[in-house]
Design a protein that fits this description.
Number of helices: 9
Largest sheet: 4 strands, mixed
CATH topology of the largest domain: Glutathione S-transferase Yfyf (Class Pi), Chain A, domain 2
Order of helices and strands: EHEHEEHHHHHHH
CATH architecture of the largest domain: Up-down Bundle
Helix content: 55-70%
Structural class: alpha+beta
CATH class of the largest domain: Mainly Alpha
Shape: globular
Number of domains: 2
Length: 212
């Protein structure tokens, strides 16, 4: 399989974590967003939406990280990224959606480039914009995991789940935008537990072939 990825892309990062947790190796194909390589005809033929990540399975090209991760969960169910019960699955999916639907889309490159080019936002304004949405989402995430008295070391239980797959790239992004993370001690404890695992370490932006 070929993974079309950019080292600093949060959606690519979450997919790399999921692939590593599942023990699935891929050929890494870098798509450099810094020079808008995703807008070229070569990548448009891979993904008409011109966004990373994309996963070429050899039979089809899968796009959109939530869909790809769901595909991985169905095709490679062990180790599971979702708990067994319907109630617990809903809880984990909600945590993931808080990041994937409510934080990340407002802070992705397309939005930030629009703020810069069409609205004249400088980097201080960009950081403030990102911090406001990250903080609102992390406040809620922190409250939910703090209230779960049976939680364990991760966002849910004692093994990584879909929630952690989404959370860790957003923590990385928060640091890039100079957000003070000490205000969320439970999230920081979850990050520590995740980053002790090779699957998360190898997925980190700085470990990718196109980093630097």
């Amino acid at each position: 399989m070929k993974l079309y990825s950019f080292f600093r892309s949060g959606t690519s990062h979450r997919l790399r974590i999921a692939l590593n947790l599942k023990g699935i190796a891929t050929d890494y194909v870098a798509v450099d967003l810094r020079v808008d390589e995703q807008q070229g005809e070569a990548f448009k033929s891979v993904n008409p939406q011109q966004m990373v990540p994309a996963l070429d399975t050899g039979k089809q090209v899968l796009i959109q990280s939530p869909a790809i991760i769901e595909w991985l969960e169905e095709k490679h169910p062990t180790p599971a990224l979702l708990p067994a019960g319907a109630d617990d699955r809903a809880h984990v999916r909600a945590l993931a959606a808080m990041v994937g639907c409510d934080i990340h889309p407002l802070n992705n490159r397309r939005v930030l480039q629009t703020l810069r080019k069409q609205f004249g936002a400088n980097e201080d304004a960009i950081n403030a914009w990102c911090a406001s949405w990250i903080s609102a989402g992390f406040d809620a995430y922190e409250a939910l995991i703090a209230a779960d008295k049976t939680r364990g070391r991760f966002s849910f239980g004692d093994t990584p789940t879909l929630a952690d797959v989404y959370l860790i790239p957003q923590v990385e992004s928060a640091r890039r935008f100079n957000v003070n993370l000490t205000q969320w001690p439970h999230i920081m404890a979850v990050e520590k537990a995740c980053m002790a695992l090779e699957a998360f370490q190898k997925a980190a932006p700085g470990q990718q072939p196109d980093a630097g």
